[in-house]
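Troubleshooting entry. The earlier prediction with magnesium ion gave an output that would not parse, so I re-checked the input for stray whitespace and re-submitted. Clean input:
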Amino acid sequence: MEEKKYVYLFSEGNASMKNLLGGKGANLAEMTTLGIPVPQGFTVTTEACNKYYDDGRVIANEVIDEIYEKMHELEKITGKEFGNVERPLLVSVRSGARASMPGMMDTILNLGLNDESVEAMAKLTNNPRFAYDSYRRFIQMFSDVVMDVEKRLFENLIDEMKEENNVHLDTELTADDLKELVKRYKALYKKEKGEEFPQDPKVQLIESITAVFRSWDNPRAIVYRRLNDIPGAWGTAVNVQEMVFGNKGETSGTGVAFSRNPATGENAIYGEYLMNAQGEDVVAGIRTPLPISKLQIQNPEIYKQFEDIVNTLETHYKDMQDMEITIEDGKLYFLQTRNGKRTAQAALKIAVDLVEEGMLTKEEAILKVEPKQLDSLLHPNFDETELKNTEVIAKGLPASPGAASGKIAFTAEEAKLRAENGERVILVRLETSPEDIEGMIAAQGILTVRGGMTSHAAVVARGMGTCCVAGCGAIKVNESAKTVEVNGKVLTSEDWLSIDGSTGNVYPTALKTVAPEISGYFATFMGWADEVRKLKVRTNADTPKDTMQAVEFGAEGVGLCRTEHMFFAEDRIMAVREMIVAKNEEQRRKALEKLLPMQKGDFVGIYEALEDRPATIRFLDPPLHEFLPHSDEDIEALAKEMGLTFEDLKATVESLHEFNPMMGHRGCRLAVSYPEIAEMQTRAVIEAAIEVKNNKGYNIVPEIMIPLIGEIKELKFVKDVVINTIKAVLEETGAELEYKVGTMIEIPRAAITADEIAKEAEFFSFGTNDLTQMTFGFSRDDAAKFLNAYYENKIYEQDPFAKLDQNGVGTLVKIAVEKGRATRPDIKLGICGEHGGDPSSVEFCHNIGLDYVSCSPFRVPLARLAAAQAQVKNPR
Ligand code: PEP
Ligand code: MG
């Protein structure tokens, strides 16, 4: 067997080797092949990283030997020598995963410097200040990034030095000062680590490479990977590259450039540079960089070369490039290039422009925009500059995107009242329940301590397009004292909070928001996505308003109307409660009679908003006690209103209490116990359809969906009630109407017996929220409490309630698809769990041949794009 190769010179690779060399390494190799001036070096592969972990977090000797070998070759290429005291070769060490990952290790520059080579540098450059400044920066970076010695300790030493010398700026320190500072840095290192600062460049190098591998698993990187759907198994590569210096004098400089404007997408080179500086000076804001267009005036020859290379790179990669350059003694180098990060607006403009310029096909362009990025186009965002200067006091789950500021409101009623008085509020709750709905509508944003990505707060907020941060365990809410404690601060209802539902960040102040702007590029681009995709996209909506919003975003029907959400409105909760506390069927029917016209009215509104599009109406699902008050005070008030005694009502509430309500008396079980509820709902669905058909001429084909089926006979029982009611209504009205009766597949037993269930069900809709909950055996509302420990211990990489667990839950879905189709080849198949709005889960749904996905209105554009991308990647 040929021996595995773990290290590649830049001249040995190319862009197609991204999985092995990482994005940065593959692009450095590609640029080398293209003849672009790149400081040379080598890449230690992602496989070496994986081996490091497999071997118990050590770099194997064979890999170390290969690194030394390549270092030797690099010495030949550069004519310099690693550790040499006359012509020292200095390198940078940087991480470089397949996808760019800002959560990982910082760069180490000037590696190879030691007490001797620093002197050589001083002589070679005739600039001892520069040499010692480079050395002290290296000691600081190496100690901080590789050896975990706090940066602050070094910064204290610089501050002391400046004080002693009575100067304010680092740049005012002389070569001798910096020489002395190096001594102090090394002493600090020895004190902290119990050994001398490593003088052997080989030791410096191997320690640094090890640190990059280690950083793949630091908590920041794990969080970043989870948010960006990057598998832990990819590993990171490490790039070792010859240093070139932009701070050697007035003919040297450093810069960053984009081939197009990353904020607007405008087709003009955009960038900044500084002469006589290192990249760090730009980042640290010590000096203000100049716009790259100035370079054209300052040095037209270099600018021309720069511009040519930028154009070559963009044409070569067929995408906007983000590049780092250095000019050393009048010679231009490209230190890296990559597809540039861009705002959503820019992403759309660039994708459309590249097609119009003939560089990309529509299919290729479809892959250039991240579906999740579309979120920021549909919701307000915080002002970037304000954000930069604001402390994050806590972080929760990014449950529903957008940005909102408001004063703290502790209850739904309070939120509603204060909002009516013109105040902006953030509703802060331990967790929300259906009773909070009006407060949730009134609030600018919702923050909960508990609950995961499919908790009530998350699902409802996403449906409304309201920003929500859920499961933010770092805040302590004292509901009776009306205080929030966070990070040692106590906040009251007079304090402002800002929450970012796209990052999960919480800020202790009011921040400015910027309204989203939708350009013509959005429509053009989404039109292309619609031309390409095979998967249909419906929406989860319970009100005419949400339905209309979704249709505007391109929804092709309602995939899930949760009828219970209609029951909480102020004007009907009383009738709902009467229905629940009814002592017998007669009382219950009376209450249901009151509900019927209201429920029918809701459906009329939804059908009208949909025009001819299909609507799946799901029958009542949650446990009944959710509709009842729980505190003695509220029970007392309700008893009075209903003409019952407190004891009587309290006893009813208690009798409805359940230990595991999620697995209790809910879903189709309600209709089995009280068929009259299903009767009323059927009547409302059918009468509304007839009415809209007659009045508006729309061809409504209602799809009645029975939830939480686990056994065919359950479905048969409820379906009989439904069919008999439909027959009765059609007879009474003399109308004709097409309709469908189907079920949700959200209990593992239903998936496994889907061939039987399909005998009675004309369609399946996968309720992957419950299916995930029941397959994993943990509750969607409580999982947030322990999932973090699972991420930290690498048991899970992702929240299975946000991203479909394809191995487990996905297998159940696939089984049900196969079995369902075996019984009923034309069975309609969709998904309506929250996964219907997650890009990778949408791709899965495409791949297994579902007919549609259904998601909350604000995620409809994202799902349309994800479905188109799935078709481009895997045509069906
Ligand atoms: C589901 O379980 O996936 C679903 C859509 O139903 P709900 O979230 O209302 O339980
Ligand atoms: Mg469900």
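This one parsed fine. The chain has a mean pLDDT of 93.
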